[in-house]
Amino acid sequence: MPTVFSHALLGYAAAELAVPRRPTPRGLRLLATLLPVLPDADSLFMRWIPYEAPFGHRGFTHSLFFAFALGGLASLVLRPRSEIFGGRRSVCAVFLGAVVATHGLLDAMTDGGRGIAFFAPFENERYFFDFRPIPVAPISVRWFFSGRMFADPDFWKEVLLFWPLCAAAIAGKAFPGPRGRFAAGFLAGFGVASWVWVGLLA
Q1: What are phi and psi of 110, to 5 degrees?
Q2: Quick one: pLDDT at residue 181?
Q3: What is the pLDDT of residues 116-173, one digit of tens each?
Q4: Which residue, 130, 112, 132, 20, is CA-closest to 58?
Q5: Cβ atoms of residues 100 and 66 within 8 Å
Q6: What is d(CA 167, CA 186) in angstroms, rounded to the nearest whole number?
Q7: What pTM, to 2 d.p., does this model score?
Q8: Which letter, b or e, does each residue of 143-170 get, where b requires 16 or more Cβ atoms within 10 Å of its Cβ?
Q9: How many whole angstroms separate alpha carbon 20 and alpha carbon 16?
Q10: Domain segments of the chain: what residues?
């Protein structure tokens, strides 16, 4: 998996892109940031549930069914404004579901672990994409919150792949006008170049 930081940052950037010309509602921004992290809650039960089980790590909580069910439930706590998503809760639900689904899609591009049960609970087959440039992050709280993470070259590889593109979306919204467009364009170009470079090395 990418780290929780990248999953959360991607959701935050998606919320900014979803509402390009108006202030992003706090509730939407908060949900879009937190929800993509939730599928990894299954790692808390790895001591009791086998990895390959339907409810094991990268199982049901990484599925498309879980993603859009969670997005639908989360949309119930929001009141979409008329000028955002046209005030339609269904559109908000699909957006939040897609944000959650990015977790499994990105995990399927990692270079370690087992595949993703995209179609759980209907089947437990695990899938990877053929293109897998993302280094898998250790499932370790100590690794996350210690200096070991910052000393790990795989973490910085992940930063190169995700953070410039997310920062481009955020900069374009935060700094309207020529400066914002320049910053967003530069960061986006750097992010795309990082994917091309990593892809060539993969």
Answers
A1: -90, 160
A2: 83
A3: 999 999 999 999 998 888 888 766 656 566 667 667 777 888 888 889 999 998 887 7
A4: 112
A5: yes
A6: 10
A7: 0.89
A8: eeeeeebeeeebbebbbbbbbbbbbbbb
A9: 6
A10: 4-201
